[in-house]
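Sanity check

After download, print the first record. It should look like this:
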Amino acid sequence: MSLIKEVDVFYEQLKNKSLSAFKEIDKAGKIIERKWNTPFGLMEVRLFLGDVFEKAGVSYSSLRIKHPKTGVEVDVRVFEILAYMSNPKVPTCAISLRYRLDDSDKFMGCCDISPSVMIEEDQKCFEDKMKELVRKYGKDYGKMRERSLELFTSKYTGQKILGGRGIAFDLIGEGFEFFKECGETFLETSLTIIKKRKNEPYTDAEKDKQLHDRGKWVEFNLMEDKGFILGVQAGVPPEAMNFQTLPPIAKFYP
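Expected structure tokens:
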């Protein structure tokens, strides 16, 4: 049975909750909205730009695409948050939730936080919340974490691109409740860490490392990220994906 309507309602709720929370934390922030009506469907991105959030992208896609490997047309719904923070003591926060309907409902997703300044307390907080979520639904955190590491480790450098404490999953049929709670847990935990660290002092060296870490993400995203590559192969406008995912400023090593 199709859960497209229920998924769309959940995405709308999570979008509104996210943007409201960002505005509460960062009252100087403003929202820039862009939409793309493509031959495959609608893509919309809302950027939140402020003092605490250097750039936070919240995106929604409602598409009907032909899978580049199978050639089968499928309905796809995608929701993503990617938050680049001004303070390098606050980790980059990222989640992607993807619903696909072909012969059955399929719930896919991944989430993690990525610190430039390692604060073990925050990493453990995120890991513990992920473990608690996974345990509640009888899943295996170790396997979901390994899946995330596989997706976000560069095959060229061997470096982890995200923090390595998050999860990735691919569930067929029953999985909507886990899917929803993953989104809620990610948002709640990320906001807790952001509020705790947003005003902490930092050094020029810590900011410089943050910008170079972003450069590594840009390289990985454009060259290796499977979601980005599949999107391009399916005909999704790269401009729309880049508007959401690329950082406002980054540095690259010579």
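If your output differs, re-run the checksum step. Summary of this record's structure: Helices lie at 4-25, 120-136, 141-151, 176-197, 204-223, 226-234, 238-245.
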